[in-house]
Amino acid sequence: MRNPCPVCGGSEVTKAEVLWPGLVAAWELSPDEVAYVNHQQGTKCRDCGTQIRGMALARAILAWMGENGPLREVLKRDRWRGLQVADMNGCAGVSESFSRLDGYQRADFPDFDMQDLSLPDDSFDLVFHSDTLEHIPDPAAALRECLRVLRPGGRLCFTAPVIVGRLSRRRDGLPPSYHGSPDTQPEDYIVHSEFGADIWTLLAEIGATSLHLETVDYPAGLAWSVGRPDEARRSGSEARAVAPPEIKPPENEPPAALPDPVADAVDEEVSPVHLYDQDALATRHNHEFMNDPAFRRAYARGVKAAETDYRWHWRVHVGLWAAQAASKLPGDFVECGVNRGFLSSAIMELLDWDRTGRTFHLLDTFSGIDPRYVSEAEEAEGILEKNRKTIDSGFYVTSADAARANFSEWKNHRIIVGAVPETLSQIEARQIAFLSIDMNCMPPEVAALAYLWPRLVDGGFILLDDYAYVGYRQQKLGMDACARKLGVSVLSLPTGQGLIIKPPRAPLAGTGPLAAIKRLFRA
Fold first, then answer.
1. CATH of 301-501, one of 3.40.50.150, 3.40.50.2000, 3.30.499.10, 3.90.170.10
2. What pTM value is reported for the model?
3. Any idea what the Cα angle at residue 467 is, between residues 463 and 472, rounded to 5°?
4. How is the chain split into domains, by residue range?
5. Which one, of 133, 261, 275, lies nearest residue 214 by Cα?
6. Fewer CB in a 10 Å sphere around the end CB: N or C, the chain?
7. CA–CA gap between residue 288 and residue 295 (Å, rounded)
8. Is the previous residue joined to 120 through a cis bond, with omega within 30 degrees of 0?
9. Contact predicate 101/83, CB 8 Å
């Protein structure tokens, strides 16, 4: 487990093998499957006792709430005091965290029939259960009942043991299989369903909306989060619990700091079949770039600058790719919106910066967003309140001192303090090969692109950090309008970034390749 426990924030775990030969044989598990199921059930947080599956459940709940963990601390906040919660069968660590709430109700299976809940409609903001569904004769009926008792905007979060390399099957007609201790096999531990990668189809069949998957050490920890059938199809962050209006999930806010972020950023290799699930991007597509030694060193340097791992591997991968390509072109590098220097530090590490002979111009207010340059639309959407919270959280720096200390490793850089567009004239570069724009506010971002465009060399790279990221719509609209005036378009990336490559200008008459051939034959 690389991240802190999402229940208590602990960083140490205990491990044990929990499967026994009879269950392995009944489930026909391969050695790899045995390993990740043992990890799912046998790895526990040393501090709170939560298993990997419980950690995944906690992450699903926190994502719906729009909060960063640990869950135990989040639930102490006044805003969640009135939450109405139904806990079906309990989950170590998660149940104890919710048990302090007045609106918490525990209903243990099988004493409480999940296929026919004796609870009124629209009763709870949150219903959760963990590794219970496989023991229910009719799991679809149980899920429908859980959704029935949800209030509008409520959420069902649950885990179930899944073998990801196969399809689900019923155990009707097969020898009885039980979970629990191999020495005591109570009838309620009998398994009716073995779930596979198609478990999501069960949720679709019952009409659940806004399906969201959370993982911990995939494929060991999997948790699902869904809304009521009559809810509009929305993302997990939009379909969070009914809460005071000011409670909004801050997009792009970093998770809690890791105990040793630099070491943890490079400690585990990925395989071609691993699920990538970070920074609002989940995909099974190959991401073995995370194994590349050069990428790992560069990413670790970015983590060192930020003093935490934001889990931005794919975004940084895109930035490093663009920077490496730009290093083949003439011109300096510019970043507008440096903050602690995560991306720019990674780039400078990758390129062995002082050997390039270029200057990296690093611009930031180093005090958050300047309210003078906020658009009316962004102000109406609450950007200034979000800016205040981001400063209070420590994500935005409040002086340039940290950046100066971080970049002191390299000679060829220039830190420019102040608001864009006022500081753009201080960029002395006549040619620019790489431009990164990440100011989280539309007017200064558009101003930077428009002002610096004439200095960008042909083929130069412009990376827009939040162009397509959820919650930054005004930046996209502004950049699209600016790009149209410049005669280009923005490539929208699944990482939330946008990319522009400046096209070459038309050659002067008599200077193209055809003219060169004619001159050759005339000679």
1. 3.40.50.150
2. 0.53
3. 145
4. 13-227, 301-501
5. 275
6. C
7. 10
8. no
9. yes
- Give the separation between CA 150 and CA 228, rounded to whole angstroms: 7
Structure-model confidence comparison of residues 519 and 163, the more confident one = 163
Query: Three-state DSSP class for 460?
Result: strand
Let me know how long the chain is: 523
Percent of the chain having pLDDT more than 90?
A: 71
Provide the token pair at 387: 């800016």
Q: How many CB atoms neighbour CB 261 within 10 A?
A: 17
Examine the pLDDT at 71 and tell me if it is beyond 90: yes
Q: Evaluate whether 13-227 and 301-501 have a shared fold.
A: yes
CA 377 to the chain's CA centroid: 26
For the chain, report the end-to-end CA distance as a whole number of angstroms.
Answer: 70
Residues 6+ apart with CB under 8 A from 236: 63, 64, 210, 212, 225
Q: What confidence tier does 256 reach under pLDDT thresholds 50, 70, 90?
A: very low
Contacts of 397 (CB under 8 A, 6+ apart): 339, 340, 364, 366, 367, 403
Query: What is the C-alpha to C-alpha distance for residues 397 and 106, in angstroms, rounded to an integer?
Result: 43
* Residue 125 vs residues 78, 144, 331, 345, 476: alpha-carbon distances, Å: 16, 15, 55, 43, 34
3-state secondary structure 343-389: HHHHHHHHCCHHHCCCCEEEEECCCCCCHHHCCHHHHHCCHHHHHHH
Burial label, 197 (beta-carbon count in 10 A; 0-12, 13-18, 19+): middle
Q: Is the dihedral of CA 56, 59, 65, 66 positive or negative?
A: negative
pLDDT at 45 over 70: yes
Which H or E run includes 196? strand 193-196
Residue 246 pLDDT level (bands cut at 50, 70, 90): very low
pLDDT at 236: 39
Averaged pLDDT for residues 350-356: 96
Weakest mean pLDDT among 36-45, 169-178, 390-399, 415-424? 169-178
Residues 6+ apart with CB under 8 A from 431: 330, 331, 332, 455, 456, 457
Report pLDDT digits (tens) over 267-298: 556 766 577 878 888 887 899 999 999 999 99
Could you tell me the maximum CA-CA distance found in the chain, to the nearest angstrom?
A: 97
Q: Within a 10 A sphere around the Cβ of 157, how many other Cβ atoms?
A: 28
